Amino acid sequence: MSRDARWKALLELLVERGRLDVEEAAAELEVSSATIRRDFDQLAEQQMLVRTRGGAVVHGVSYELPLRYKTARHASEKQRIAKAVAGLVTPGTAVGLTGGTTTTEVARALAVRPDLASGSPALTVVTNALNIANELAVRPQFKIVVTGGVARAQSYELIGPLADGVLSQITIDVAVLGVVAFDVTHGAAAHDEAEAAINRLLCERAERVIVAADSSKLGQRAFARICAADAVDTLVTDTAAGGDAVRRFEEAGIQVVAV
């Protein structure tokens, strides 16, 4: 197992359990205790966990894995969701994409749609996510609009008043939100309040709002609200979403697409 794969596995275990012992982690990953101790020390230096005697705990109250360590979580579900979301986008329109692993997959799904292979432009994409802009910039048929702002390392998103300035000057047809939580009562939410503020403005500038979220995000709450549930037109999720959860969203007037 490579170091990156090992770190990803360690961080995901840590998020799931809140605390890990060296011996426990070594047994889980089938590596030596010395390797785990070294991994914990290096991750602690990057402030991605807090080292304890004999193990590690999550860093902070509201723990968020950097984007590069979240790509493997619910990967197949996210790809199915992304393909379905991409299918809801009409050629020639303006679409806003927030940052996140699911919206990154949406960008990739849009990039390979045959009917978006040409046009002037085939699609206008507005995003505050540097990684999404980087992936789509090589598609000459796409017009890419990137907000200004200060880069947030965890999500590659641009945040702050510079991003506000761009978004306040434009309108878009559909906004696609990546979220960490979506609940009928508490709405769509993110970990970071500055990130949530930019995503909220993107919603306000859109004619239609789509939340792209795997079933693990549904019925959950997070620190910073992006928008109320009634601001969302469509939820695209996976088929593991419970019937009760789906019914609550539908009763709130949200179209639910489960794939």
Can you tell me about this structure?
This protein has 259 residues and is an alpha/beta fold. 36% of the residues lie in helices and 24% in strands. The chain has 9 helices and 15 strands. The strands form 4 sheets. It has a 7-stranded parallel sheet with strand order 6-5-4-9-12-14-15, sandwiched between helices. β4, α5 and β5 form a beta-alpha-beta unit. α2 (22-29) crosses α3 (33-45) and α5 (101-111) packs parallel to α6 (130-136). It starts with a helix and ends with a strand. 41% of the residues are buried. The mean pLDDT is 90.
Strand content: 15-25%
Radius of gyration, in angstroms, nearest whole number: 19 Å
Poorly predicted spans = none
Going by helix content, strand content and strand pairing, the class is alpha/beta
Approximate shape: globular
Largest sheet, order of strands side by side?
6-5-4-9-12-14-15
What is the element string, with H for helices and E for strands?
HEHHEEHEHEHEEEHEEEHEEEHE
Helix tally equals 9
Percentage of residues in helical conformation:
25-40%
Number of strands: 15
Distance between the termini: 32 Å
Q: Report mean pLDDT, rounded to a whole number.
A: 90
Biggest β-sheet strands, sense, barrel: 7 strands, parallel
